Amino acid sequence: MITLKQLGRNMEPIRPFIKKYGGIFSDLTLGTRFMWGDEFGIEYAVLNDTLIMRETFSKHASFYYPLGKDVEGAIAAIEEYCKAAGEEAVTFGCLTDEQAAALSERYAGAPIKSYRDWCDYIYPAEQFLTYAGKKLSGQRNHVNKFKRLYKDYKVRLITEDDIPAVKDFLREYEKENDITGFAAEEEPRVYDLLDNMKALDQFGIFITVGEKIVSVSVGEIVGETLFVQVEKGLKEYEGVYPFTAQEFAKMFATDGVTKINREEDCGDAGLRVSKTQYHPSEIKPKNYVSARSAFSLIAPPVYLETERLTVTDIMREDKSVYAKLYTDDKINEFYGYDYRQDLGENKPDGDYFFKFTLALKAKKEEYSLAVREGGKMIGEIVFYNFDYSGNAEIGFRFFTEFQGKGYAFESVKAAIGYAFKQGFKKITCRHFKENARSEKLILKLGFLFTREDKTHKYYELNK
Description:
The chain is elongated. Helix content is about 35%, strand content about 30%. Helix 14 (about 405-420) links the parallel strand 20 and strand 21 (about 425-430). The longest helix is centred in the last third of the chain and has 16 residues, at about 405-420. By secondary structure, it is α+β, with helices and mostly antiparallel strands. It has 15 helices and 23 strands. Helix 2 (about 30-35) crosses helix 8 (about 180-195) and helix 7 runs antiparallel to helix 8.
């Protein structure tokens, strides 16, 4: 099973994956991950040369779509991780439409959601080079006006020696603007980004009028996309933003760069107007897919009634009978679990097994039900191996004196009917090859044989 580690501020573990597979969204860049890693609590693992990342924001955790060679194996590992952690749902975020559709299909039609505030603005790189055409005439006019008003402007690459002056500019920018929300949280992160530009493959420009810095832009290239991580200008200089955006593109939108990603607007009304005025070719949604464990479909307390029996949750008053069920060797010969595997020859009392089943339920690993005749517990039905696609496995065992009377068929059929009514999509089961009685019952219940291995035969029943 994967072990997630805190990413922190060292981007080296994720660098090769970002460079090779990233760039789909601004979130999958070194600059963004460095700037916002602490805010979003980024954790990561590498499995079979594939990067797994998870972020936690406002107590809501979601995994990124894996980056690397073994996406299927990584997704399965994520599911295993969530199951082991007892998480009610597996959630993926920052998904393309294609990735979201694939995961929705995997998880039995789990809903796809996206939020307008977090969509990335994507533009053809060439349109920033000239602002040609009627729809960009406003930007073109602003650029011409800037050049006309400030004839002594200069465009300069940011070097390490320029960092102190750029920071002075940022302080002036902060005084000039009423910075709130995410913009306020971004400011100290911009200073950190400047201090680590080389390590993070960042580059940038600053524009001066006379000797005064009036704007700054910083970004990076991933694949065929130029990402704008930082763009700030002093608003008293007319046209400074369209001019800076164009000069940044002229400087870096070369050598195979076809797109510019100007990131999300974070719900800021002014930013939204500004970004849409540049006429994006795509406002790219970052989709989310969240699939709940089939365990969550069970609604306790369970109470089922058949012609002769009832099926309910296991109760405290059942604990002595339940212990007998667990410790009867003949009953458990073909059940698949022997308590001695965990406890040796020390036979525990009823409290142990009752607490044991409660612990499994708390971890969302198993949901055990008592089968009763006249209120007395005569057997057990267990749902387990829950997944996030609406599937689970079913098992059952009965005291010897209640076998061969149709009780298992009657109660298990009722439990299966309940599960499908609650929304389960598929139920699987298995039996030891030698257990002909179970095979007969499973086939009678309508299960279809799917495969076998050295010890078991496997079956499934679809809704």
